[in-house]
Amino acid sequence: MGYEGARAGLAKILASQMETPFFPVSLRQLPSHLAIEELRDMEFQVGTVEVRSKFANHPGICVGYRLATSSGSIAYFPDNEPYEELKLLLASRDGISEDEARDFAAAERRKVVEFLRDCDLAIMDTQYTEEEYAKHVGWGHSSVDSVVSLALDANVAKLLLFHHDPNHDDQMIDKMVEHARALVAKSGKPLEVDAAREGAEILLEAKIAVS
What does the CA dihedral 108, 46, 152, 135 come to, rounded to 10 degrees? Predict the structure, then answer.
């Protein structure tokens, strides 16, 4: 399930990335029953799970999802860049003033905060350090500082840093986690931060109403 791509439908995009010379096995050779559904609505249901989606700030098309389950909520927001630096950089190109760019960026940021509001677990693109991001404005990815700020403003309970940069080793990721935790400690809020790991399992605890 997914949305139409920037230049083609979802089925074509999924198939083209597996064509020669990129990959030796085509999509139709996969030993499975594959059903592709191109979404139109931004809210839909998968079984008992309610899903909301939001387009991210990324060149081309990228979408974040929020799942509402009986035990809690999970947001997955890949390939998303903060609007502030990008809009200021592009202001002159787009023929708008810096004030207009700031107003637009602030409004878009508020939409992301509301999308994440009170989420139990948010898995978010934090590819760069703040210093690295300054050299990659417009590439469609976030820094640790900007994502922690979003999570704090949205009152997220637990934040998982992911979309690790290929040049970052485990020690670098550990440093980024420690930096994120220091930002949280400075805020005085109870946000829990960790790095996403392959094979990790996180159990959401169902909330029991107490009368």
Answer: -60
